[in-house]
Write a structure and sequence with these properties.
This protein has 316 residues and is of the alpha/beta class. The protein has three domains: 89 residues, Beta Barrel (Elongation Factor Tu (Ef-tu), domain 3), CATH 2.40.30; 109 residues, Rossmann fold; 86 residues, Ubiquitin-like (UB roll). Helix content is 15%, strand content 29%. It contains seven helices and 18 strands. It has a five-stranded parallel β-sheet, sandwiched between helices. It has a five-stranded mixed β-sheet with strand order 13-12-18-14-16, covered by helices on one side. It binds FE2/S2 (inorganic) cluster. FE2/S2 (inorganic) cluster binds next to loops.
Length: 316
């Protein structure tokens, strides 16, 4: 990853829920920020030195500030958690925005499905559509309860509420939103989904009969939960026979980067396809959203996927 970070200043920090804070980021000298496209994200260097990607959730044409919302993850590697220590007035090293979750501006209509903090990229899409006077979209937003619903106040206003269905499961999987009535009959809409892995897998399952080019996924900020129940393993680089230990709370990408290897990466959440790496032997637990079934036999996305076998040999 190139180290092309620029410091942005935290102009405002506010709690959206007990576990989510929103940061208003501004240029330190008050210069305008670049316009971004709906669904874009930025990568920041957290106080703990980890790289984290967060979707921009403000109005894409707003050059005065960029908004990101961060969820407290107590089970991850501490990257998001350390963001909570940041104070107004401090600076945050930030890379230029990127977009791997582009909105199809010409879609007939839009179906948005978000879970928890996964609302963020979709919010920028909805803000963009509304700024153009469009209302040809509907959001299905799944959260635990009202208290744990980021942007509840905004989405409940008369201006937004007609296009929004908020569903609470109260922490009970049996009360999850029934997606089948939404996806049973393809209706020509483009579908955009961001949220926990389980929600995205459900949408993937339910849309198998939809045109694949109309189904779009993003997972930034959704959860660090992939680092729960991880098993350590060894990774071996085939060309040099060097062997490195991948501990429970580090990814292969983290380990190789710490060893001085430059691996192409961007999202670090298994959605962009940048870090695709061939492997030679070992058994992989695929946790990404980009590899085709036929690619999984000999490729791994090293930012999120792990080895099930004690050793994994990469073609590096
Ligand atoms: S960095 Fe995007 S899939 Fe790995």
């Amino acid at each position: 990853m190139n180290d092309d970070y620029q410091n942005l200043r935290i102009a405002k920090k506010q709690a959206l829920t007990p576990d989510v804070v929103m940061f208003d980021l501004v240029h330190p000298e008050g210069a305008p920020l670049p316009v971004f496209t709906p669904g874009a994200h930025i990568t920041v260097k957290t106080p703990k030195g980890l790289h984290r990607s967060y979707s921009l959730c403000g109005e894409p044409l707003d050059t005065q500030r960029w908004l990101i919302a961060v969820k407290r993850e107590t089970t991850g590697r501490g990257g998001s958690l350390s963001m909570f220590d940041l104070l107004e007035g401090e600076v945050l090293p930030t890379k230029p925005w990127l977009n791997q979750f582009e909105l199809n501006e010409n879609a007939k209509s839009y179906l948005f499905v978000a879970g928890g903090i996964g609302i963020t990229p979709i919010l920028s899409m909805m803000r963009h559509l509304m700024s153009q006077g469009k209302s040809n979209f509907h959001l299905f937003y799944c959260t635990r309860d009202e208290l744990n619903t980021p942007f509840m106040d905004l989405l409940s206003t008369p201006e937004w509420s007609a296009m929004v269905t908020i569903h609470h499961d109260h922490g009970d999987p049996s009360q999850s939103l029934d997606l089948w009535p939404i996806f049973e009959s393809p209706n020509g809409a483009d579908v955009y989904c961001c949220g926990p892995k389980g929600l995205m897998e459900s949408v993937q399952d339910m849309t198998g009969h939809w045109p694949s080019e109309c189904i779009h996924f993003e997972s930034f900020g959704a959860s660090d939960q992939q680092f729960v129940l991880n098993t350590p393993f060894e990774v071996v680089l085939n060309a040099s026979a060097q062997q490195f230990h991948v501990p429970e709370h580090s990814s292969i990408l983290d380990v190789l980067r710490a060893e001085g290897y430059s691996i192409k990466s961007s999202c670090e959440s298994g959605t962009c396809g940048s870090c695709k790496t061939r492997f030679i032997s070992g058994e992989v637990e695929h946790r990404d959203f980009v590899l085709l079934e036929e690619e999984k036999a000999d490729h791994i996305m090293v930012c999120v996927s792990r080895a099930k076998s004690p050793t994994l040999v990469l073609d590096l």
